[in-house]
Amino acid sequence: MAKNYPETIPAEFAADEKQADAYKRGWNHGHGFACHNVPDLGAKLFLDDMGRVTVTAENIREIHQSLCYAAESNSRSFSPFEFTAAEFNGADCDENGAFDPEKEGTAESLWAAFDQGWQDAMAADLAEYTNADYGIESDEAASDDSEG
Prior knowledge:
mainly alpha, two-stranded antiparallel sheet, 7 helices
């Protein structure tokens, strides 16, 4: 499975230490959602973007992604994330909280790095899930069981 932190950082974020850190934090953020929101085959769920669904071998990956994105969105509503948001949102300001024209765009660049980090982490995690990880038997394994 994917790692807690990326092996490489995209070039657009790697040159700036704060953006590289924001990307790593975003990666870790996304990795947590991908590995902790794996749906169970046969589960009956209601998803905001898909409505009422039953998890099948055909839709499990789409549902897994939907659960991850919903969890990430919901996470921004609660206290621990507020500290990250306050840090990033204040990056355009001086130590007194006043806007600093020399730092203009820093907050936006940190959010871009963080968002790319969590999206890349989720994609890396989701890409590594096999049918076996989801509990889906391969056609070959299913036919072997029926012959036995």
